[in-house]
Design goal:
The protein has about 190 residues and is mostly helical. Helix content is about 65%, strand content about 0%. The chain has a domain at about 1-60. The chain has 10 helices and no strands. The protein is rod-shaped, with a radius of gyration of 39 Å.
């Protein structure tokens, strides 16, 4: 047990196990400044000062590099947990299947490092809804243009007829104003 404790202290204080045995009181307790001078602690303060500092959110700055250098086992464990979670996140997005026409969106979200499968589904749903709203708007505009052209041609929009008069049945030609309106829709003159 002593060896495990000495090893843990050495690792977390960034010194060798020999330093812990030789300089950290050899199992004895060092008080305040003597403990700081030996490298066992980082600073001396009162309990009240410590509580104030903790309430302010003062923390030791810990970077990935420092974690890797000073605590390699912890770094490796955290790294593997993150890598495993990321693999599972991507796997769940790929499990959604193919979304034809949305491949670029899915790929972007898959590799942004944060989007979940549910977020991808929602994004595709929203994109599809926007696409349908745009189509509806375009259809409405086209319908208004067609109605305006028909009105301009003088044909108007009338009630459907149940019977076609005999003279219209014999002729395969459309009424001239209607033909002109159709040509305008097609871009003709």
């Amino acid at each position: 047990m002593a060896d495990r404790f000495i090893s843990a202290v050495a690792r977390y204080r960034g010194v060798s196990a020999e330093d812990v045995v030789e300089k950290f009181g050899a199992g004895d307790i060092l008080i305040a400044q003597a403990a700081k001078d030996a490298g066992m602690i980082d600073e001396v303060s009162t309990f009240e000062q410590l509580m104030k500092n903790l309430q302010k959110g003062e923390q030791m700055e810990l970077s990935a590099k420092r974690l890797q250098d000073e605590f390699p086992e912890v770094y490796a464990e955290v790294f593997e947990l993150g890598a495993s979670a990321e693999r599972e996140r991507i796997r769940s997005i790929e499990g959604l299947g193919q979304f034809v026409g949305y491949e670029k969106l899915v790929t972007q979200m898959k590799f942004d490092g944060k989007s979940t499968a549910e977020m991808v589904e929602l994004a595709i749903f929203r994109a599809e809804r926007e696409k349908k709203m745009k189509l509806k708007s375009e259809y409405d505009q086209d319908g208004q243009k067609a109605a305006a052209l028909l009105a301009e041609a003088g044909t108007g929009i009338g009630e459907p007829r149940n019977e076609i008069p005999d003279d219209e049945q014999k002729s395969a030609k459309l009424p001239s104003p209607f033909v002109k309106a159709l040509e305008k829709l097609k871009g003709g003159k």
